[in-house]
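Dear support,

Our group has been running a series of protein-ligand predictions, and this particular one with protoporphyrin IX containing FE is the one our PI (initials K.S.) wants archived with full inputs and outputs. We had some confusion internally about which version of the output was final, so please treat the block below as the authoritative record. The input we submitted was:
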Amino acid sequence: MGFLEWATSPWGQRVPIHIAWFLIWVAVIAGLLFFIVHATYLRYFAKAREFAGSNSPLLVARIPEHVPRHSLTARLFHWVMAAAMFTLLFTAFLPKVGFQFNWVTYHWIAGAVLTASILFHIIHASFFMDFWSIWPDRIDLRDARRRMLRSVGKAAPPPDRFAKYPLENKLYHGAIIAAGLSVIITGVFMMSRVRTIFFPRNPYLFSDMTWGMMYVLHGLAGVGLIALIMVHVYFGLRPEKRAITKSMIFGWMSRDFYLEEHDPARWPVEPSESPARSRGADTEGLTDAG
Ligand code: HEM
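Confirmed final output from the archive:
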């Protein structure tokens, strides 16, 4: 049972043509296994989370009731990307598992939307957002070690609360970048094999072997995305993550959730017209939330 399907080129060379489609089921089963293992671990084995430090009442009073988390632009990007991603997954894989339809046109159109939205996101994140907020920092790595030690009953100080994104989200984002850029870069070249509005069809752009490798990479990253997207949706639906999912719809999360999970020193938010201040309390010496 090979992981790739092969063919013989007109010149007698054996070339890969794409991945073997049973890998679709491998990805779906991997995603389902992840749900089962994670949900069982949380239900029966995970210890209650504990974080270092606490919030002073003065600081709490400065945090707005609705903490802004995602701008309207960022939310629109997310949902456009999600629609394109689901369209790509369904148009690519439904025909492979027996639902035949004329999928290629829908697929490259969704591919073009995904490509445009990701280009937009790269510019938006680089120049208008806090670019570094999604990359692991030293505190994340130190705290990952602490959490690991504590989970096996070893002595370690409690970890800090998270910055805007926990380490797990940052690692997930990295995996999505790798798989997403792989399908996008190969997909843009593959568009020259089919008729689109962008450039004239030219199936001779690369050798049969290069095309074969490109289809293989496109397929591998594609099935990887099945599992990655399943895991993303699973977390989005989990009750303890609902505040985060809601923030991708409404743009904000509650002050309570923010203070419980996030460290105002690592993810500062604009102070509200503070009740403490409006009551005339002395806010002198209150360090900035960041
Ligand atoms: C979630 C993302 C994506 C997935 C899961 C995915 C999956 C697939 C799969 C499984 C195929 C069939 C390949 C084969 O027969 O070996 C395919 C073909 C194709 N994909 Fe994607 N793809 C994705 C994103 C993209 C993007 C972003 C583009 C364009 C920028 C694109 C353009 C194409 C084109 C043009 C074909 C048709 C090639 C042909 O029939 O010769 N795909 N895709």
